[in-house]
Every structure is written in structure tokens, then in C-alpha cells.
Amino acid sequence: MSLFDWFADRRKGQFVGKVSQESDESDGLWGKCPECSQVVYRKDLLANASVCSNCGHHQRIDSKERIDLIVDPGSFKSFDRDLSPTDPLGFKDRRAYADRLRESQASTGLKDGVVTGTCCVEEMPLALAVMDFRFMGGSMGSVVGEKITRLVEHATTNQLPLLIVCASGGARMQEGMLSLMQMAKISGALERHREAELLYIPLLTHPTTGGVTASFAMLGDLILAEPKALIGFAGRRVIEQTLREKLPDNFQTAEYLQDHGFVDKIVPRTQLRSTLASLLRLHGSQPIKAAGG
Description:
Blueprint: H1 3-10, E1 30-32, E2 39-41, H2 42-47, H3 63-70, E3 77-79, H4 97-108, E4 114-121, E5 124-131, H5 142-157, E6 162-168, H6 176-195, E7 200-208, H7 210-213, E8 224-225, H8 236-243, H9 254-259, E9 265-266, H10 272-282, H11 288-291
Parallel strand pairs: 5-6, 6-7, 7-8, 8-9
Antiparallel strand pairs: 1-2, 3-4, 4-5
């Protein structure tokens, strides 16, 4: 859990912001788009990658759905699936950290907030990490950092391009400095990947904030983002109070960051797989069958 999510819990979930207000109305046969209020048939929504056909709003999806959208069917091979977090600080706020972990593991079926592995995209090999916002707000603890670092090192050793799908409220406050260390650890592994002249692409989804933004989310050779994704470090209110200035309405959106040079391309979810394949080919990747003769 990030500091952002902890304050949300303190206020019993009643804080302002679309990050906490993602609609759960689509759990039945019919749902309503949280952006335009259009009533949609759930099967049609899922067939369109959970993107509203009326307004283009990208609803949040979990790591399994994300992987299914990106990779060739049956090609994903998971790494470090059983790597599980501990409670080194014996941390407790309103609830014990150990209890929060057990609850998140039970509700998501994951050990922690990221899924890593290798896959193929149009038969081209790729190392892939997908953060899952359902697990304590996608917060980055020691296990998240370790799994991503191991994946980056595997990609470097095996000369693989790398994609990290970011969705996070930031560093996990319940692990203190151990969580903050992951920023440097992952960044160091990415530098060795860069020195090997290998491609790294982060995909910034809604939301990408805090220590994730301050480290590996912004270190890519090409930085992609989904439309209207919230991307930033500190919250709007903190920045406005610090600068004593009113920020633009679209501040910290993917579109604002693209206009100011922090994001290279905004890619609708329905076009992501074909865009990734084009980028991989552009940077020299070849289908495994062709590469093997």
C-alpha cells in the first residue's frame, strides 16, 4: 500500500479522484461507463479490451487480462510465481500489514503486485512485467522490486527486449526503506540492460504515481501511455500548495505529458499489441521461427 492509499483508507474510501472511484457496475451482464454513463453490455465491453465504444474510456483491467491482450496465446511463461512478501517491520496502522497481505492475496490470487515472465508478441520474444493495481494499489514493495529486477537481469542475459506495464500508487509504506531501495535496484538493472543496447519500453497506465514514476516508469527508450492515464509523482493538491499556483485541468494526464515531452506515444489499448509488434520489428526483433531458420 502506498502513502496515497493509506490516506484513502483513513478516510474510509471517501477521497476524491477517479483512482478510487473506478466503477464496479460492470460485474453483471450490463454496466455503465464511469466516464460517459453509457450503458454497455459486458461481453461487448470485454471484446473491446474494456474500452468504452462510446467515449473511449479505458476501464482498469487486471494483470491476467493485460497479459491476454498483449501476448501470443499460450506463450507466456511466468517467473518467480511463489515469491511472497514478509512483514520485516511488523508494521501496523489501522490494520496489521500481515493482514492486508493475506487479504490481497486471497482476493487477487497473486502473491504480490506484479506478474513477470517471458512471452512472444507476433512470434517475437519479449520479457514482460505487469503490475496489478488490485494488490494494495499496485504498491512497490520488496517482492515487486525483486521480481522486476530478476526479470530485467534475465532479459539482459538472454538479449531480450523488455516491457513493463506500470500501474501503481507508489512505494509501499509498510516496508519503509526496504521499499524505497527497490527504485535504485531496478534502475541499476535497467542501466545494465541499456548498456547491452537492448530495448526497454514502459507502458504507463492509470494510475502511475509515486516512486514508480520516479524510477523505472520514466527510464524507457520509448515511453508509451494509455489515453487519459493519471501519471505523476506527488498529488495535485500537494504541488499546488507547494508552488502556490493553480495547475491546468489536464495536469498529470498522459496527454499533458506527451505535449511536454515526457511520453513518446499514447496508444489506445485496442492498438497496443500491433504497436508493440511494430516497435519490436523496428528495433531488430525477429520471429523465433525465422531466427531459428
